[in-house]
Automatic annotation (TrEMBL), chains A, B:
Pfam families: Pyr_redox_2, Pyr_redox_dim, Rhodanese. Gene3D superfamilies: FAD/NAD(P)-binding domain, Rhodanese-like domain. Its cofactor is FAD. The keyword Cell division does not apply. The keyword Oxidoreductase applies. InterPro entries: FAD-bd_OxRdtase, FAD/NAD-bd_sf, FAD/NAD-binding_dom, FAD/NAD-linked_Rdtase_dimer_sf, Pyr_nucl-diS_OxRdtase_dimer, Rhodanese-like_dom, Rhodanese-like_dom_sf. This is Coenzyme A-disulfide reductase. The gene is cdr. PROSITE patterns: RHODANESE_3. One of its GO terms (molecular function) is oxidoreductase activity. Residues 468-552 form the Rhodanese domain. CDD domains: RHOD_Pyr_redox. Keywords: FAD, Flavoprotein, Oxidoreductase, Redox-active center. It comes from Vibrio halioticoli NBRC 102217.
Length: 552, 552
């Protein structure tokens, strides 16, 4: 009779326990969870705080009792595994309620301890108004502070998923909110110019967004009937705030694994092979605590996301019970709702490509989420990164109010399948006016990419516009009405695309014409006209829309 | 100087014209359109009639003037190409305004004539209240009838895309509507049980839906101040109606091609090779008029949809002007909005697999469009067809109120990329509570499929339940509350899954236990318990939900 012990009862651990039972009726399965809750919806916590999810009990997907009834799993909450004896194949468990300790033997041990919020060494952080958010007790503490302190101002430090979601929750509750992010952008999986759309949305909703600013110190002010915090920021400003959320990131929980002498990867996560086996073949590890392989580069990486954790848990159970499953790397596919926007990405971003010294090209497309003549169409701003030689897909990013998840899903599948940008031209996606376009966002991006690969387009990018020389001439091919209120690039001239054939003689043949329009489509029409008439030209990919948000 | 003539100025023709000009500034390009309009949004026509698209001009994407200004294309509306002289490489054109005829020489000719509505030989159809819908004048005629006749009752014959959209348009206008469909289901790209959800939606919205019923004759009744139609149906019923839309399908417009001696395929569409070249290398053809290759089988097929037409037009232009592009077959990816539902599919359906004698397996999943604890989640009903040996994806179908387009897009990409259902397990799709689930619909369907392939699940399907023998026992593992109001299968017994371990002794070991639950998930848990305890068992895939809609 196989005995399986599982450390951690949320995504990866719970998936493994359920799968293990489905595979074996007679395995003994014990799941230890040092907290009070198992299998809770940690991705839902900010939405309960913000009021979208009214009912707290909806976050509790399973209980120890329900797990026992359905899966015959012995779930021991408030029981912490504090040591592993690999020789004896046993663990020491501490009962956190009465402090007693005991040991359990295992045939297989699964580590799914998750990751813990990073708390930076900032003076004054240890106070009753400062919280992180990782589990149900964290959430309850935040809700208690909201009830007792009735904050008028909240501050969130960190512009990742949880930071953005907590910012939105506070704004939704009518609490004036500051978001403090040390980097020059929120949502680091996308590149800065794509994050620009998110910055715009955040500011439009009235959030006090500070980029490139760090929290330096916190002072806890306790008066007779009130308490608050005074925050000092790295830019010299300060904020008086009533609740502070620290959401700068997480680090893998590896102490138990380290003390047991298991191999820890270069990124600080527990090392596993593709079968989710640690350096000890009887011990598996999954989820936020493990080091994964990047799907594109094969390099080790940390991807603390729910999808990989769930699938890894299932696979670890398969492998413990004689099925053979290999985890096939993580693309880091991610999405975040930020007020009315969605921002999403898969694969590598431009920052990572630059760091790794990889040769790449990029295209931008801004086009309607569905047929523009049908109500409700919204612009999808889409960026695709690829190898200009082979057409290999490196990554994709999208921002918009509609259809963002769908486009990144399409790219995530295409990338995982090893499709090239040439093949993306042929994708046959659902089309009816309420859902898409006959030439979808992805087809259009593929057309632009292939024009570059085939030499039918010569791109220029927004960051090159500041460095134009006297040998170049900047040409806006939009209509004059679109240029109003300073909505154009200084130093340009304007000939609308539909007048270009008649007015081509106004342009010099000895200069390179740098063409731009609103999103790059008319620019391409103008580019082809000029080049086919013997001009030298380049077209600004993504047009003025990309340029403006990138240089804002 | 290359001279390109294009017959037909909508999707395929217009795409080809624009692409040709971008590739060559000095090509002479003439586009003939026998109608009054080019490049109009034919997919939008029903939505203007129903009032979703208020502004008629939004349907006119381009005009001859705008085409000339931007692409220097000579657009000749009300000019019909009536003959091709392949020897002389010229066409005879009839000016439909003055009746004059003239010839134009070509280097390359592109045929994009589209398809025409099929009008069956039914007595009495030729009357002022009967319309089809294919272009702007058809739409205007329908709008005129609506204005002048103020119909209280409308009848639509044919439950394809246009029929369903017109049915919805009429209902939306407050007109009581009958939908008459000769087959036992609407929306033939999906299988009948999946169409069942659509039938339910249609009936719930108050439409008089008649399946398996044909229109037999029409009588035009003209009184003093009113006119109406009396319809005789094949089931003996009749309907008094005030407007009749015939939408039973389209057939390729091939007369011109036939008369020119071009090869016509077995399906009745113009034959082309993968480069969109007809049997005459100087003549290309694209869109609804051509025979395409089915992506899965390689067999010839007709797929009158906008996406393929647009991409084929672009490719034909590429090939005429020295680029090399091959069309890579059509999956028939399609979607239709039916009131609050979307119904979509890609690849082959079960009917086609049965006809072709292909061995296949199928799985059903009914699961939430995004995290069920986050507001707005709707059930996606998903069917996947695959090769139980190789795991090759044959096709997929989905119905639901949210997230249907996304799931079929994912499947369309996966199928085109040649992914297997094994690989679908590893898909890493966007997940945050407002957008998806950590285990997406597609991952879940892949898990079910792989359980079957690996021998970890033995499925039974809804159509086998009627043929159970005395050697089989039907077991409902849902809770008693779910069985109320007759919501269970006659002759079953009920043991809730969470009581099964304690009550397993109630079950006979010599019979095969046929397990079912609501959607198949708890059924699988019960199946694993029983099989691992030495019982013979099968699990009803898709559960009672699939069974109920399939047998309704």
């Amino acid at each position: 009779m196989t005995k399986i012990l599982i450390v951690g009862g949320v995504a990866g651990g719970a998936s493994a326990a359920a799968r293990a039972r489905r595979l074996s009726e007679d395995a003994e399965i014990i799941m230890f969870e040092r907290g009070e809750f198992v299998s809770f919806a940690n991705c839902g916590l900010p939405y309960h705080i913000g009021g979208d999810i009214k009912d707290r009990s909806k976050l509790l997907l399973q209980t120890p009792d329900s797990f026992l009834a359905r899966f015959n799993v012995d779930v021991r909450v408030m029981n912490e595994v504090i040591a592993i004896d690999r020789q004896a194949k046993s663990v020491t468990v501490k009962n956190l309620i009465d402090g007693s300790e005991y040991t359990e033997r295992y045939d297989f041990l699964l580590l799914s301890p998750g990751a813990a919020p990073i708390i930076p060494p900032i003076a004054g952080l240890d106070n009753p108004l400062t919280h992180s958010l990782r589990n149900i007790p964290d959430m309850d503490r935040i809700l208690n502070t909201l009830r007792s302190n009735k904050p008028k101002h909240a501050t969130v430090v960190g512009g990742g998923f949880i930071g953005l979601e907590m910012m939105e929750a506070f704004q939704q509750l009518g609490i004036k909110t500051s978001l403090i992010e040390m980097a020059e952008q929120v949502m680091t999986p996308v590149d800065r110019e794509m994050a620009g759309f998110v910055h715009e949305e955040i500011r439009n909703k009235g959030v006090d967004l500070k980029l490139g600013v760090a929290l330096q110190s916190v002072e806890y002010l306790h008066h007779q009937n009130s308490q608050s915090l005074k925050l000092q920021l790295s830019n010299g400003e300060s904020r008086d705030t009533d609740i502070l959320i620290m959401a700068i990131g997480v680090r893998p929980e590896t102490q138990l694994a380290k003390e047991a002498g298991l191999r820890i990867g270069a990124t600080g996560g527990i090392y596993t092979n593709a079968q989710m086996q640690t350096s000890d073949p009887s011990i598996y590890a999954v989820g936020d605590a493990v080091e994964e392989q990047d799907f594109v580069t094969g390099n080790p990486t940390l991807v603390p996301l729910a999808g990989p954790a769930n699938r890894q848990g299932r696979m670890a159970a398969d492998n413990m019970l004689g099925r053979e499953q290999s985890y096939q790397g993580t693309q880091g596919t991610a999405i975040c709702k930020v007020f009315d926007l969605a921002v999403a990405s898969t694969g590598m971003n431009e920052k990572q490509l630059q760091q790794s010294g990889t040769a790449y090209e990029k295209v931008y497309v801004h086009t309607a989420s569905h047929a523009s003549y049908y109500p409700g169409a919204e612009t999808v701003s889409f960026k695709m990164l690829f190898d200009p030689q082979s057409g290999k897909i490196f990554g994709a990013q999208a921002v918009g109010k509609d259809g963002v998840d769908k486009r990144i899903d399409v790219m995530a599948v295409a990338q995982r399948a090893g499709m090239s940008v040439q093949q993306l031209q042929h994708l046959e996606l659902t089309y009816a006016p309420p859902f898409g376009s006959a030439k979808d966002v992805i087809n259009q991006a593929a057309f632009v990419a292939n024009n570059i690969i085939n030499g039918d387009a010569t791109p220029i990018h927004f960051d090159e516009i500041a460095h134009l020389t006297d040998e170049q001439l900047l040409l806006d091919v939009r209509n004059p009405a679109e240029r109003k209120n300073g909505n154009h690039i200084a130093g340009d001239i304007n000939i609308p695309v539909d007048q270009l054939r008649q007015r081509m003689h106004e342009l010099p043949k000895d200069k390179e014409i740098i063409i731009y329009c609103q999103v790059g489509l008319r620019g391409n029409v103008a580019y082809r006209q000029l080049v086919n008439n013997g001009f030298k030209a380049k077209n600004l990919l993504g047009g003025y829309r990309t340029y403006k948000i990138a240089t804002a």
